[in-house]
C-alpha cells in the first residue's frame, strides 16, 4: 500500500466498566475477555496491573495471558472498596507492545449486608415535669455502612417500648423524641426508659435498637406540709442558746433542691422574741431553739404558730396546702435558780471611828424561785481587814472593829467586801454581792504647828518676818486651809506682832515694833477647815536676834536664837566643845597609826636580805601554845622580795616524777593587813594543784631554800607505825633538827 489509512482503536480493545456484586461466592468468576486485533503468528501475551492484582489487596483479579480472560478470585466487600481501576496490556512474544494500554474498571455492586448502628447505646435527655405536648427532648441517630444512594442505607426510627402511658413519640426520619401527651409528673414517675429502633430498607430491612433515658426535672409544684397540726415540747427555765425540739415536714419535690428546702416562720405567740426556728439542711425539719432565757415564775408555757414554705416560690398551678401552719406548745420547766442581789454593788458610807457592833446596812438577796419554799443564808466571802460581821439569816452587816484612816485595805477611801448568799436546794446555788463601804473622814486630828520655833530679826521690815506652817493628819475637807491667829486672850501681842495668810497651809509672822534680843513665847490659835473645826491653843517659841545691816542675824545672835528655841547657851557650848575634842582625838589616833605602819614598813625593808630559812625554820622549841608569840617570826610573810628574788624556781619534792615544774611562787601582798588573804589564796592554789596528793599539798606555802642536804620531811610518815620508824637519822640533818631527834630518837 502506498497510502495507509488512519488507524482506529478496535472496539474489542475498548473495555466498558464491569459490574460485579459484592459477596459473590462462585469463585473464580469470569468477569470479561479482552482481545487485541493485532494477532501475530506466534500469538499475543495479555497482562493486567493495578489494585487487586499486583497492588494491595493482592490476588483478587487474574488474567489468562493467552486468551485474555479476566477472573475474580475472591469475594468483594463494597464497604472496603467500591471499585477497582486496572490497566490491560497486549504484547507479542518478544515483549513488544502491540496495543496501547487500556483501562479496565470493575465496579462492586452493593448488597444490604450491614445493619444500622446507633452512635451510642444509651441516649440521655431531660425535660421539666408538666411540659406541654410537642416539647422535644432529645434526638437519637444511627448510621449504615451500606451504599447511601440505595435503600440499603435508608433508615427509619421507631419506639418499641416506653410503658403503658405513651408519653413520648419519635420522628421516624430524624429520630427526634418529643412529648406526646400532657401530665408528666416527676413525683409520679421521675425517669422514663424508652427502647428505640433503627431499620434500613426504609424500615423493612435490617434493624438495631438502643435505650433512650429521659429524666424529669423537678419544679416547685408541691408545697411543704407539716406531718401533724400540733407539736409539744418543754425546756428548762434560764436556758438560752439550746434547742427545744423539732417540727417535722414533708415535701414531695426533689430532696435537696430549692423546691424542697423549707423555710419556717414564727407567726404568733412570741412577742418578746425568745424563740427562733431554723431548718435542718439534712432532714428539712424545723428546729426550735431558745435565744433568750425564760423565767418559769413569769411565764410557764408558750403557744406558738409556725408556718412553712419553700425557698423557691410555688408554681402558680400548684395547689395550696392545708398543712402549711402548725401549733407548737412549749412548757417552761421550773428549776432551782441562784439568788439574786438586786443592788450589786451596794454602796454605803460609814464615818471613820465608828465603834464596833454598829449596824451599817442590811444586804440581802432575793430568790427567783417564788414557787419553791427556800431559805437563804449569808456569809462574808471576802473581808480582808476583818472589819465586819454578818448575820447569816438577816443579812445585817455590823462593824467588828473600829474603822480608821489610813489603812492598806482602803482604795481611794473605799473598803470592798463580798457577801455570799446561798439557798438550801439540792444542789444549793449561790450568788455573790459586792459591798462597797466609803469610810468618811472625821475631823479627829488638830493641826500642828511646823516648826514650833523660829528666829527672826527684831527690826520691822528688815528680816523681821517668820514663815509659819502647819500639818494635819486628816484628809480633805478636814485639813487645809489653816487659819493662824494670835491668841485673843493676850491682846497686848497685837502691838508688837502680826500674822498674815501666805497660802492655804502657811502664814507670815511679822514684827511691828523693834524688839530687844531674846526668846519670846507667843500663844497662837491654829484651826483647820473641818466640821467642826479643831484648833487648840499652841505656843510658838520665837527668838529675836541681833540684826546685821542686811537684815540677817549675826553669829552670836544665831547661837542665842538656837538657845531660844529650847536649848540654853551653856548647853550648846558644852556640846560644841565635846564635838571638837572628839574630832581632835580621832585625828591624833589616825596620825599615830599611820606613823607606826610607816616605821614597820621601813624596818621590814631593811631586813629583806636575810635568809628566809633562818627565820621560818628556827624552831628551838615547840612553843608554849596560843600564848607563845615567839615561836616564829610573822614578818617573813610580809617580805615579797624574799619570795621573788631567787632566779631559780624551787623544786617540789612531793610532786610525781612525771609532773612538770610548778609555776613560780605567787607575788605576796604588799600590806600586812592582807596576810590572811595571802594564806587563804595559797591554800586554794595548793588544793587545786592536780599534780600532788591533797595531804601534802595543804602543807606547801612556799619553798624552804635550795641546795639543802637534808632529806624531805615526807619520809617521817612513810611507815605505818612509830615503832617501825627509826628517827636517829634526824641528828644527821644539822643543828636545826637536833631538838626533833631528841624528842623522837
Keywords:
single chain, 745 residues, mainly beta, Immunoglobulin-like, four-stranded mixed β-sheet, 7 helices, 40 strands, disordered N terminus, cleavage on pair of basic residues, signal, calcium ion binding, calcium
Q: Could you characterize what this model shows?
A:
The chain is 11% helix and 32% strand. The chain has 745 residues and is mostly beta strands. Among the domains are: 18-109, Immunoglobulin-like; 117-217, Sandwich (Immunoglobulin-like); 228-333, Sandwich (Immunoglobulin-like); 346-440, Immunoglobulin-like; 448-545, Cadherins (Immunoglobulin-like, Sandwich). The strands form twelve sheets. It has a four-stranded mixed beta sheet, with no helix packed on it. A four-stranded mixed beta sheet has the order 9-16-15-12, with no helix packed on it. The chain is elongated. 21% of the residues are buried.
Question: What's the topology here?
Answer:
Layout: E1 18-21, E2 29-33, E3 45-49, E4 61-63, E5 69-72, E6 83-91, E7 97-109, E8 117-118, E9 122-128, E10 136-139, E11 142-143, E12 156-161, E13 168-170, E14 176-179, E15 191-199, E16 207-217, E17 225-226, E18 230-236, E19 242-247, E20 249-250, E21 262-268, E22 275-279, E23 286-290, E24 301-310, E25 325-333, E26 346-351, E27 359-362, E28 377-382, E29 388-390, E30 396-399, E31 414-422, E32 430-440, E33 448-450, E34 453-457, E35 465-471, E36 483-486, E37 497-501, E38 506-511, E39 518-527, E40 537-545, H1 555-564, H2 569-606, H3 612-616, H4 640-644, H5 675-687, H6 694-697, H7 738-744
Parallel strand pairs: 1-7, 9-16, 18-25, 26-32, 34-40
Antiparallel strand pairs: 2-5, 3-6, 4-5, 6-7, 8-11, 10-14, 12-15, 13-14, 15-16, 17-20, 19-23, 21-24, 22-23, 24-25, 27-30, 28-31, 29-30, 31-32, 33-35, 35-38, 36-39, 37-38, 39-40
